[in-house]
């Protein structure tokens, strides 16, 4: 890399409820990572309200980009490209980032690189693990996705399995709401579980004979709701911490078992995790232990790079840029963009 010119990418992420911008150098060095979270606003409603998210992105985006540039000590004139999440996500939210990226690309005559949000999550693993290069196995667990994939090359995925109903994060959020923890549920269940007994309630783990690497979390979610209803009807006390810990145990064991089985079946000696749920402390510990036992090297981003951020989009944009991916000013938001689609 020494005699090559540095490649500086400004990345923008606005697919859900974080307005984020980052400057990334040569795909792996994060010069700045600014995240403006709307969680406090959406908490009032128990979940993300799309119209409010779009409006807040519009209010915040210029400020967030300005901060990302100044934190990195660069100006728009120093950049080599603009990367932006164009799907999947909330259409109105995505459009704010896409329109902003197109405006900067046009005004500064910079190449525009549209990025798949999930490709971004996977790429978060490259930031702190300089030795990690494809191929490797990756478990993607976010609010909208649960995918087990082989990362064959940068931005190239073979999907081994995915969820047939709820995503892992969605299940965390729904169970958290049922036990009165509020939004977003994942981090709250993670915390409350430390006070509970994971063996208190035997919640089920879905077995899918016809898709060993597929997932289903609607069963465990319904089991939690049934447990709460039964306790209420029989006048028994409800222990939220035990419910949280037992639910989390069921989900974590399923994720670890399937990911490790896939790694063994496909001869993968490296396994990474990605997405908001990848910041779950029990999942990280369980994955670490299981990988160690099977001599698999385990990779995970720091929690700040697991949940939505623009640094991960800058990393993915860099590898897309290197491959020659360029989007025109007709780039549109694609709310249901599939992984591997361009
Ligand atoms: O990747 P992400 O920030 O956004 C999407 O692309 O969906 O993931 C958000 C999801 C939410 O469902 C949130 O509850 C979950 O990740 N999450 C967690 C934790 N932190 C965030 N789930 C379990 N444990 C956590 N510590
Ligand atoms: Zn995400």
TrEMBL record:
Catalytic activity entry: L-threonylcarbamoyladenylate + adenosine(37) in tRNA = N(6)-L-threonylcarbamoyladenosine(37) in tRNA + AMP + H(+)
Coiled-coil regions listed: none
Classification via Pfam families: TsaD
CC per GO annotation: cytoplasm
This protein's record includes keyword Nuclease: no
Domain Gcp-like positions: 29-314
Gene3D superfamilies reported for this sequence: 3.30.420.40
Main location class: cytoplasm
Residue sites binding Fe cation per the record: 117, 121, 308
Gene Ontology MF, one: iron ion binding
Function noted in UniProt: Required for the formation of a threonylcarbamoyl group on adenosine at position 37 (t(6)A37) in tRNAs that read codons beginning with adenine. Is involved in the transfer of the threonylcarbamoyl moiety of threonylcarbamoyl-AMP (TC-AMP) to the N6 group of A37, together with TsaE and TsaB. TsaD likely plays a direct catalytic role in this reaction.
Similarity comment: Belongs to the KAE1 / TsaD family.
PANTHER family the record matches: TRNA N6-ADENOSINE THREONYLCARBAMOYLTRANSFERASE, TRNA N6-ADENOSINE THREONYLCARBAMOYLTRANSFERASE, MITOCHONDRIAL
Protein name according to UniProt: tRNA N6-adenosine threonylcarbamoyltransferase
Gene: tsaD
């Amino acid at each position: 890399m020494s005699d090559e010119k540095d490649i500086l990418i400004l990345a923008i992420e606005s697919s859900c409820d974080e307005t984020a911008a980052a400057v990334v150098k040569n795909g792996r060095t994060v010069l700045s990572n600014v995240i403006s979270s709307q969680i406090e606003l959406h908490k009032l409603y128990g979940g993300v309200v799309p119209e409010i998210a779009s409006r807040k992105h519009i209010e915040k985006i210029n400020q967030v980009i300005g901060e990302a540039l100044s934190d990195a000590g660069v100006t728009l004139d120093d950049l080599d490209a603009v990367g932006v999440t164009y799907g999947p996500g909330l259409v109105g939210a995505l459009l704010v980032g896409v329109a902003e990226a197109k405006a900067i690309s046009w005004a500064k005559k910079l190449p525009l690189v549209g990025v798949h949000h999930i490709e971004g999550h996977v790429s978060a693993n490259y930031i702190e693990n300089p030795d990690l290069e494809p191929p490797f196995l990756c478990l993607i667990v976010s609010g909208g996705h649960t995918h087990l994939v082989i990362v064959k090359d940068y931005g190239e995925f073979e999907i081994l399995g995915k969820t047939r109903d709820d995503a892992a994060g969605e299940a965390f959020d729904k169970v958290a709401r049922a036990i009165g923890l509020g939004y977003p549920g994942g981090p709250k269940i993670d915390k409350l579980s430390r006070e509970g007994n994971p063996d208190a309630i035997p919640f089920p783990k879905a077995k899918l004979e016809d898709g060993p690497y597929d997932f289903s979390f609607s069963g465990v979610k319904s089991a939690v709701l049934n447990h709460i209803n039964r306790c209420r009807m029989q006048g028994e006390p409800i222990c939220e911490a035990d419910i949280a810990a037992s639910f989390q145990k069921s989900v974590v064991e399923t994720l670890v078992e399937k990911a490790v089985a896939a790694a063994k079946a496909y001869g993968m000696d490296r396994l990474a995790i990605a997405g908001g749920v990848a910041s779950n402390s029990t999942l990280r510990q369980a994955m670490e232990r299981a990988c160690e036992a099977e001599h698999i090297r385990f990779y995970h981003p720091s929690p700040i790079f697991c949940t939505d951020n623009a640094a991960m989009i800058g990393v993915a944009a860099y590898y897309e840029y290197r491959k020659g991916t360029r989007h025109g000013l007709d780039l549109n938001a694609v709310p249901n963009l599939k992984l591997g689609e361009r």
